[in-house]
Amino acid sequence: MLDVTIDSNQPVDGFYAELASSAAALVDGEPDAIANMANIAALIWQYVPDINWAGFYRVVDDELVLGPFQGKTACIRIAIGAGVCGTAAATAAVQRVADVHAFPGHIACDAESRSELVIPIISQGRVIAVLDLDSPLPDRFRAEDEAGLCRLVAAISDSLG
Ligand code: SME
Q1: What lines the ligand 1 site, CB under 6 Å?
Q2: Which of 25, 71, 107, 159 could form a disulfide with 1 if both were Cys (CB 3.0 to 4.6 A apart)?
Q3: What is the tens place of the pLDDT at every residue in 87-116?
Q4: What is the structure's pLDDT at 2?
Q5: How far is the C-alpha of 124 from the C-alpha of 146, rounded, in Å?
Q6: E strands of the chain, at which residues?
């Protein structure tokens, strides 16, 4: 199933339920993590409103390395513990940042980014990557966006490692 159509204007619960099931269908039966990350980044980019970057950083040799994404070119390597992505990787905790300018050490890949959501991807008990979404709007990501995207990540994390 590669044809995906999702109504981005429906209530947010239903939207993220559809996004998660579409994500699960896209990775179903495909073992290549990079291919799966590429399609998930494209899915999020197409349907999640008001974002200017969506993609992955992978944990490679104890640092984060840029993975498949949509949006402007981005910094390639981020130390574990640095910036929003590195903090998510170091703590294995979601980072939902309403104002990136107020986040100590935020790494500005795109000067237009104002808020950010980073979800650690855990497989077999360790952080293998992070999913990063940026928005040009302040406070774009709400608790329901975090819950919905965590649900998506949980549905596909075994296909990303
Ligand atoms: N802002 C991130 C860096 C990655 S870009 O947003 C794509 C950070 O502080 O880790």
Answers
A1: 53, 74-75, 78, 83-86, 106-107, 109, 113, 116, 132, 134
A2: 25
A3: 999 999 999 999 999 999 999 988 999 999
A4: 65
A5: 22
A6: 53-60, 63-71, 77-79, 95-97, 115-123, 126-135
Task: Tell me: pLDDT of 39 over 90.
Answer: yes
Q: Taking Cα atoms as reference points, which of 105, 52, 46 lies closest to residue 74?
A: 52
Bridge-based pairing state of the strands 115-123 and 53-60: unpaired
The CATH number that applies at residue 88 is: 3.30.450.40
Q: pTM for the full model?
A: 0.96
Determine, yes or no, domain membership for 4: no
Which atom of ligand 1 lies nearest, measured to the CA of 85? 10
For ligand 1, atom 1, the nearest C-alpha belongs to 107
Q: Rounded to the nearest whole angstrom, what is the distance from the C-alpha of residue 1 to the centroid of ligand 1?
A: 31
Q: Which helix (H) or strand (E) covers residue 17, if one does?
A: helix 12-27
CA distances from 111 to 93, 117, 120 (A): 25, 16, 23
Query: What pLDDT band is residue 68 in, cutting at 50, 70 and 90?
Result: very high
